[in-house]
Specification:
This protein has 101 residues and is α+β, with helices and mostly antiparallel strands. The chain has one domain (2-91): Alpha-Beta Plaits. Helix content is 35%, strand content 35%. It has three helices and four strands. It has helices at 15-30, 59-66, 69-79, and strands spanning 2-10, 35-42, 49-56, 82-91. A four-stranded antiparallel beta sheet has the order 2-3-1-4. Strand 2 and strand 3 form a beta hairpin. The longest helix is centred in the first third of the chain and has 16 residues, at 15-30. It is globular, with a radius of gyration of 15 Å. The N and C termini lie far apart (31 Å).
């Protein structure tokens, strides 16, 4: 499983536009093959900063979404609202053994 986090800083006056884009595309993204989870987070101190947190079955599934027509519509429309470029990274969850005292 691959976890993808994308941190986006929007022009403050354009956050409502982003929320409409996200609301309109949320269910469609969740239906993409390999999308296991999708959440939208808002920064607690800076209300124009949002993060998407998604889980994908594999890097291939994420890349297939990134090559899709849906992404081709959603990302350019979202990117046009940024105040600064987005920061995106993919991670894997780490499971450590429980240590005994």
């Amino acid at each position: 499983m691959l976890i993808r986090i994308v941190r986006m800083t929007f022009q403050p006056e354009r956050t409502a536009e982003f929320l409409r884009i996200f609301q309109d595309s949320d269910a469609l993204i969740r239906q993409m093959p390999g999308c296991l989870r999708l959440e939208l987070w808002q920064d607690a101190d800076q209300p124009n900063i949002y993060c998407t947190h998604s889980h994908w079955a594999s890097a291939e599934a994420l890349n297939a979404y990134r090559r899709s027509a849906l992404f081709g519509q959603v990302w350019p429309a979202t990117k046009a609202l940024f105040a600064v470029p987005a920061q995106a990274f993919s991670v894997h969850q780490v499971s450590l053994p429980i240590s005994q005292p």
